[in-house]
C-alpha cells in the first residue's frame, strides 16, 4: 500500500578503518543494518535493501567537530545532527544542519557477513573515505576511538513511501533512498555526552528553543500537507535499540492516541515514567503542554499507563561560575568538612557506645531494684523477728529484776514498758532507756536500818580475866 513519504533514522556502525599511503584520506566501511526485525518493529528485507543499495554511493558523511578546551587534553568531541529550522531562498521552512562533510561513501551497498555473539549474520554494508588531511582533528578522534575499541555511532536517514503492516511489524517496500549520514559523539568528553544513534531534538537545541522548533516543524508540516496532500515528506519518529528504542516503543503507543492536528515530542525518558511535549495547532483547541506518563517495560515491550497522565512543567536555575582560587578554597573547605564529618561520626559512634553501656547499666540497675523489691518483704519479716526476739529477751530480763524486788506492778506500768521498748534501739536513745531502767531498779532496793544490840556488863570484882592456867582442862572443862 502507498503511504506518505516518510523518513526513518537508521543506525550505522563504523566497521573498519584502513590506513593508506594517501595522506589525504582514510578508507573505512560501515555496517548499516541487518535484515531481522528491529526493536522498533520495522524490517527491511534483503531484496529491498539490495534495490536501495545503489543510493548509498556518493552520499556525504557529515559531523560537527568541537575543538579541545585546552591543548593536549581529551576534551574534543563530535556533536549530533545539529539540526535547526530555517527558510530556504524561497522563504519556505526547512530543517537545516550545522555540520560539515568530512567524507563520502565510495561504493554502493553490498551484502557481507559479520561475526556476532549469536554467530555469523548477513548485513548491508558500504565503503567510504574520510578526508583526513582537511579534517585532521576529527579523523584523529575517530582513530582514537577505533583504536580503543569504542563503538562509533553514526546514523542515516531513509526516505520511503510504501510499507505494509503484518502482525504489528512494518515491512518497508521499494523504493527506498538513503539520504544523509552523520557521525555522532560516541564517548563522553568534557561537557559533551554520548549521542545515541537517533534523531533527538533535545540534543540539537537548548531547551527553551525546543518548543518553538517543534511548533514550527508542526506548522511547516501542516502547511506542506495542505499544499501537497499525499506527496508531503513527514518525519517519522523511529529509533534503534537502547535508550532510543524505548522512546520508539513509547511513540508507537502514544502517537495513535493523538488527534491529527497534534504532535508529540518525548523530552525525557526514565526507568518508570517519561515526559512528553504535546502540542496542538487546532483552531478550536490550540495548546503546548508537557505531560508525565508512567510506563512499564518487559523485555522488548513497553506499556503506557494512560490513566497516570499528569501535566508538568520544568524549572531551570542559573548558577554562578566560580573562579579557580575560590574553587580551590571550596575544595579545601570540602576536605575540612569531610574530616569534621568523620570526627562527628566517630563522636556519634562513641556516644552511641556510651549510651549503650548506660542503657545496659540502667537495665541492670532496674533489674537489681526489682530483685530488691522482691526481697524486701523477707528482709522486713526477718528484721521484725529479730526485733521481737530482742524485745522478748529484754522483757524477760527486766521482768525478773522487778519480780526480785517485789515490783511486779511497777513492771507492768506504761512507763517501764516504753523504756523496755526503747532499750532495744541503737544509739543514745537505747542507752538512755537502759540507764533509766537500771536507776529505777536501784531506787526500788530497800536497805533495813540496823539496831545497836551491844550488851555491856560491869564486873563486880576486878581480877585477871585471862586465867593463868592454860591447860586444856582448865580451858574447856566446866
UniProtKB/TrEMBL annotation:
Alphabetically sorted, this entry's keywords are:
Coiled coil
Q: What is this protein called?
A: Uncharacterized protein
Q: Which organism is it from?
A: Bacillus tequilensis
- Could you list the residue ranges forming a coiled coil in this record? 330-408
Keyword Coiled coil listed? The answer is yes
